[in-house]
Amino acid sequence: MEWCQVSKINLALPEVQIREIRINSITGYQGDAEKLVEASRQGLRDKERSFSQCLGCATSKAACMTVLIQDAAVISHGPVGCSSCLHDFAFTYRVNAPLRGLDRPTPRRIYSTNLKEKDTVYGGNIKLANTIREVYERTQANAIFVLTTCAAGIIGDDVESVCQEAEDELGIPVIAIFCEGFKSKVWTTGFDAAYHAIARKLIQKPRQCRKDLINVINFWGSDIFSEWFEPFGAKPNYITPYSTVNTLRYASEAAATIQACSTLGSYLGAVLEQEFGVPEIPAAPPYGIAQTDRWFRALGKVLGKEEIAKKMIAEKKKKYLPQIEALREELKGKTAYVTAGAAHGHALLSVLGELGIKACGAAIFHHDPIYDSRREENDQLAQRVSDYGNVVNFNVCNKQEFELVNALNRIRPDILIARHGGMTLWGAKLGIPSLLIGDEHFAMGYEGLVQYGERLLEALENDEFVKNLGKHAINPYTKWWLEQAPDYFLKGGADR
Amino acid sequence: MSKAGLIEQERFTCAIGAMQTVVAIPRAVPILHSGPGCGEMVAGFFERSTGYAGGCTSPCTNFSEKEVVFGGINRLREIIKNTYKVLDTDLQVVLTGCTAGIVGDDVDSLVAEFVKEGKPIVSVETAGFKASNYEAHSLVVNAIIDQYVSRFESENKPKSQKNTVNLIASIPYQDPFWKGNLTEYKRLLAGIGLKANVLFGPESAGVKEWQSIPQAGFNILVSPWYGKEIADHLKEKYEQDYTWFRHIPIGANQTEAFLTQVLEFAIQQGAEIDEEAAKTFIRHESRAYYEEIENLASFLLEFRYGLPNHVHIFHDAGYVVALSKFLLHEVGIVPKEQFITDGTPEKYHDPIRSDLQSTSNKKIIPLYFEPDAGKAQDILRKIHHKGRGLIIGSGWDKELAKEKGYDFLSAAIPSPYRLILTTNYAGFTGGLRLIEDIYHMVLSTYA
User: Which one of A124, A152, B209, B372 is least enclosed by Cβ atoms within 10 Å?
Assistant: First the structure.
């Protein structure tokens, strides 16, 4: 297909192209993983739903990639509600700071332009300009990010021009990020929007190539990469959480880029490669033994240090394979259901496959048929299917709780594995042990399989709480709904 | 307010945040006709606030470009129709977001179609740019009264129950102690012979109780400003007079004043009250309260290793005034500069100022109305008083307390530092609990 060959990156434009157009992402599918992988190669069509629940939007995703930049300030250009969940990132920043060796985490600087009704009539440009000025006075930030919202987008404020003028006046980067919630059905477009803006306005052409620096596109997980990169004579440049404006600026000088989650970093990885010449390693993130082997080999190859990779693989396998084998014995016969954002969900399915747990289904939020790198090697679901086999009951659910509840109630796995807040509740309410690991690096690599396997055993063993809750929990879903097929309201399902 | 009108460190959210007003009604469901992120923002602001069918359970049209361009009414019709299939609920409240507001969808006409079929459904305009959730709480409640409660007037004759009252007090979830407070108000009012419709939470009888709103003989408003529109509306609609207590009654002095005020009003309104029994109840509660304070006094006066001697509060007007009064007179902690962060409309500033100032005829308590809490913090950053300081506020204020070396009690939202379930700060017991919380926190610094 032509669309999957041609890069859609264009840093000349202020706005990123949304994911459903750029890489043909979809938000509805019911079937199995193998067929989805096949269909992805031939061009997928999205399916709409005739019932939907609160979803989530791009603006908070753009926020989480900017609020945690150490020396930046963030302005939400909209009514006060459009930034009201961002306090959570301030907490995350503080709590996880020690994981990145940050002794004195500073308070996060988060603002709302507080758009009111009269602003929707007369426009919010002046209010935004004044806010940027005042935020700079208050914070002396090294960069200011401006996030757009539905209201600002529809009333047609010229955010790009206001930011450019402020930048000229203040002498620091003032960066517009176009992340209105209604623009894309795939909320992860918010990550792309933030990265697009950062790449466009902040990242500079490299002054040098630093063989000792590897970009790691991730959230705020533990620092496992310092140890992993050390034998290669390199250290991680974590982007964007806990970066500084300056380390971001020169992410262009790194020897390579890796990702913790391809759903997250798809766009930035591709931009760094295509626009700044930093190669993204051609391998999906290292979840499961087979993929960890491939990943280390690919990293070694990109760095020109294949021998080191080979040695590391051998050493780590020698150490961890016996432990993994023991865990497989203990977990034998167990079943699990996964609900998560796309690539990380696929990764967890691989981890389950490696540990010998049967994945009896998955509710994955969306699906990217191919990432911005246009490399099939980065397709974590394809890798899962070829390494560990098909996954039945594979549902692309757009984070729709009613579909998840329906499927869980029907399938009744031994354990529910979730990645996003709010989703474990339904496992617990149905009396199913549920596990959410916040640290995206937790299950990575050979040692990650051991850590994760141990946590799975712990969650399976300590089921008293969920069993008790299951006996008492109230269920607002109708009996009728729980008896329908989960795709009843999906186009092509019984209602459509 | 800052020059630009910006807000740093939000302590409240926008109008659609009043979906929590719906979530707090047993078995009611909010249906959002809004962008896809609104529900997530609200859930993220309040946290642990799903209730029966809030959070990820609430239906939402999740506006896309298509609805922005062509309007979202057909999408909404489909979502409402299917809500009845998927969720088992007693009341549906459609709330509109900015997108629906700007594109001008005629939601009222659509909802009227379902009303015609006899569905218990209501719509209310809550575009985020129109109001804050403090204000929108009244919009939602009044919409339910006008569009739902009014359908049951024939079997709920106005003012037919002389000893029943509608209580308009804590805003669910915005007041982190709402559940406990409502329960305590209900208990206290029962103690003086009144049956209170609390309307929200487990002590409410759900839609049946809402249907009976007209029957109440009179109403009680406990608030400096928010919710007043509900009391005014009920007065106009059902001729129910109301008695207005302008801050949260915390501790003995204020709770006694509250109950005495209500008692007098109830008698005036013709409620059948055994006045002596009611006064005995108040005396009994008060005696039990002071037994604790007497035991505590020696600790407060003699503890030699340091206790906070002054307090700054970042909270809504109801709590700032109430906590100041309580802490000065019943605990001995002196209220210094205070910060009201709820975006109080200007016309209420003066009465709130004088209510706070009436706390003491010896002391001036400087008061700032500042919804831009980042700016409020900057003001406090430059202020120093002798002795050990205490800050009561939201999670945002913990970092400031740390910076200033003050003690900190989390009692406002948003806060990741405290889980509040059914704790109350209102009433006699609420005062005692607050004392426990302050000194538990203070004593935990000694180790």
Answer: B209
